[in-house]
Task: structure prediction
Amino acid sequence: MNILTLFVLIPVVTMLAIGFSKSMKSIRVVAAIGMGIQLILAAFLVYAYLTERAAGNTAEMLFTYDALWFPSLNIHYSIGVDGISVAMIALTAVVVFAGIFASWEVEYLSKEFFISLILLASGVFGFFISIDLFTMLLFYELAVIPMYLLIGIWGSGPKEYSAMKLTLMLMGGSALLMVGLLGIYFYSAPDGTPLTWNLLEISKNTIPIEMQRFLFPFTFIGFGILGALFPFHTWSPDGHASAPTAVSMLHAGVLMKLGGYGAFRVAIFLMPDAAQEQAWIFLLLTGTSVVYGAFGAIFQKDLKYINAYSSVSHCGLVLFAILMMNQTALNGAVIQMISHGLMTALFFALIGMIYGRTHTRLINEMGGLMKVMPFLSVVYVIAGLASLGLPGLSGFVAEMTIFIGSFQHTDSFHRMLTIIAAASIVITAVYILRVVATLLYGPIRNDHYNHLTDARWFEKLSTVTLLVCIAAIGIAPLWLSDMINFSLAPIVTKLSMATSSFVSIF
Amino acid sequence: MTGNIPLEYFLILSTIMFFTGIFGFLTRRNLITMLMSIELILNSVNINFVAFNHFLYPNNLQGHFFTLIIIAVAAAEAAVAIAIIINIYRNFKSIEVDKVNQMKY
Amino acid sequence: MNAYSYTLLIPLIPLFVFLLIGLTGHKYKPSISGLIGTAGLLVVTVLSYMTAISYFWTDHIAGTAYTSLKVFEIDWLHLTEFLTINLGILLDPISVMMLVVISTVSFMVHIYSLGYMKGEKGFARFYAFLSLFSFSMLGLVLATNIFQMYIFWELVGVSSYLLIGFYYTKPSAVSASKKAFIVTRFADLGFLIGILMLSFMTNTFDFQTLVSSDSPALSHMGGATFLGLSTLTWALTLVFIGGAGKSAMFPLHIWLPDAMEGPTPVSALIHAATMVVAGVYLVARLFPLYSMVAPDALVIVAWVGGISSLFAAIIACTQYDIKRVLAYSTMSQIGYMMLALGVSGYGGHDGLGFMASNWHLFTHAMFKALLFLGAGAIIHSVHSNDMREMGNLRKYLPITHLTFLIGCLTIAGIPPLSGFFSKDEILAAALHANPALFAIEYLVAGITAFYMFRLYFNVFWGKSTHYHHTPHESPLVMTIPLMVLAFGAVFSGFLPFNELVTSDGLPFEAHINYSVAIPSVLIAAFGILVAYMMYRKESLVPEKIATSLGAFYRGAYHKFYMDELYLFVTHKIIFRYISQPVAWFDRNIVDGTMNLIGYSIEKASYMIKGFQSGRVQQYGYVFVTGAVALVIIFVFIW
Result:
């Protein structure tokens, strides 16, 4: 069997096994085993991919498999991976694995909780392995829908409102996306050839420029909504704030990456001409969201809101780099997706753990936690440092690659935006250090906190898994960067063949 | 026996019965009365069946059979409906349709 | 492999020690962590001295220029076709000199802290952070390219942040650490943009390529200009801003005095001897480039250095916290070094400023670390930072007193102590290039002597203060480092820097310039004399002078309100007028729009909801009406 199909199959089997499990203990053990296997498989996939490449296989997609699924519309179950999707799959496996352990003590309807969580994960895995646009969209929806239940049932605060808002906004994105994808389907094939959903085949054709101009905004915004594109990001703060820990982790860590991944795999890759023409609009929007999210985060009091705004800023940087459309910036975008996925998952895991102890998320009600929970606090500081781009941790690699890539444009429009985006590293430092100082340092403000306990084994496992990945990327980024670079080559070639050039407002 | 009565008379009677039934069904809120209205509608149809059968195909009996079937179905329907109505009455102490709206919201 | 491969161990040992203590430090007794850290640093020190001896003497062929050797390099990240971030080790006169400085001071601080930090909660953590800092600082000076330097630049920033905030339950320490990080981060943004511009123009990060005589930067000397300065000048100025932030140059100095909230050994190591001179090192590292393509940027460097040194020296005269006096003094001395770089030319005797700057860096590291550690010993025995609560300590702390006096004399520039030589060369270079700057520095030399002896007399002489418990001399583990550093402070002036560390690697003739040296010694002596008269015994003279200076004194006492200005800009303008509106805008306008869409859809749905009442009778009614209407239409109207 194709190794990639396993990525969808294992979650399904795990869900079935959870369905037959009786006690909460066996449910979570089954979930952990299933996702553990998934993690090992992902590691193996990375290894297999690298060996294949080392052996000189230069095909664009590896491990491909294709089966006709719905003949009359020519829909295939068509899968395959390149370096970018391998990296994203590895990220997903890590975050899901950590997420299972972060939700180790969900007692209320735990069976349903884990099933929904894994269903979501399987949607994400399916999305990343798909080459066929239709199956891609199918898995995309599969990933978005369980979110409603997960937030609506297991959430906190105004959970119905947030769940509704999040789902509706994402569905709105899907609607735009549907228009875009259908347009691509109908207009991509040259006369006389059958219509196709296959990404690679479409990329060989050229969609007429008039159609591109029309379809590009639909596709880009459709994916962009999930990637927290300003001003369609407002589902993010509320959604994250209400979601249970593991869901926030998965959502910010993985699901938002679907947006970035789709935006350049589909929108930019297939419609390079329109992308060149319209990039300036979206560059302004994403450039705004980088700085705006960071400024927004300074003033928040709720830990999850701070992190949600920080995600807006960091994910804005992903889209920003994608729109820069050169090899280095795109590479940076992918690394930033992975780095942000790991960091933000770690943050949300820690916030969940802290909230589980103090029962508040307002930073000014807490203080001095370093004394009572040193492990969690130290991890929080490290996560914070990763987030503000400390060398040796993943954030730095991503940001520097993006800034250097963006700066390769010679016009002042791109450069000014790059400098503005780079300024966000200072603002990031401000809000991260503010949180660290208020939350972890200083004297203990509340006597009850003296009795709090530090992390348990499963919490340690969850955070250490993420931390190790963050440090690994930060210390030795070369293999990841090279793996991505190789797969970016065809995309960049396609972009460089675009006939229309960048339209600048200057 | 009926040879002297023209078809129009039957039709007028059945039309009056039919619209009486419709009117009753649409305006009354009492489930029993609504059931009775439905019976009126059904019976007006019965009259039409029998009348047309008599005037158009005197040698056939299909119209009569249909009438019999309708009567049987109506009886069954009445039995079920009244059973439901009784249950509703037990639950809500009322057989007004407006009161029975808990399933809706 | 080559003869210097062992230098790879110099940064890696502290890294290993950091990981070891950081991960396992809680498992064993704190003192073991301290010993591990100190042992690691001992090895580093030995290796550094080996490197220095073989680089400067045994491996060097007399009469030839010192070349820079890239002894190790790996690819770390591929960025574009041309740009690759490498990590490696570059040995040249200044990096080898820095190795000696860092390892010596760091090793002394490690030993000293065994006594100073004894019994402190978080002793193991302290040593872990010290090792992390040593690793980062060594990586910084050994960097082969500007990006590696940036990487370690950020790492030293974080180590400094962690160490300033070492007493994390103390709010003032926490906010000081935050401030230090954010201010330097702000400066680093300039550095980063500078790197972006520079690397784009030259397609390289590599120092050797950048500063070589056929540097790719040379082809961009014409190029576009912005506000009258060439793009390269802008790039290098931005790089200098990064250096100015780290080196606490005016106006980015505000973090340094607050950073004194950290433990005193940290102040000695990071905020006096090593990290704060990273800015000087950065400019020195790129000096040939500055000198070749952006002399305008050097003028900025010189003036920033000059202004900072005067500014800090004036403030230092009014402070009472002994560590803050030393902090301002550090800022002032780094101003000297910057100025020396700024006025220097390239090659031969023109490079006098370059040599003087590095020399002063070296001597300053010795005597300032000595002064800080001495201050630490004082604080350790008196449990206060405030010099008003001290006096007459010479009886209680003889060794500290003697070494501190040596430190004060050195910084004042009294021959034949090392400070005299290095300062003399700086003044000579300044006089040669820019008389105005020379005048400033000459004045500062006097002020320096004054405030240092103000401190000295206040602490060791003056009024006999009543102490709660009698101050006692520190243990040997603390006094030995003082003696070693005092030795360095006395004798490092006799090192032949004009042969070892020069701008082009070739030795040149340098001699004491008596026309500069004699007046500078005189003004220093004058400063000491004034301090002696004012503070030797308790007197009312200082207060009278302070009152007579009025507003000027108050301004200096309040550090010329720079903190307030920054607070105003950050809190009032950025927080209140940018951040708060952004947060409001997002919650109300952007999110409000989304909610409005949702709300209006919901309202619209309520409005049409009546049609779907679920009442069969209503449906029937509509149906019948419709049917009748259709009948009427079709039958009668059609």
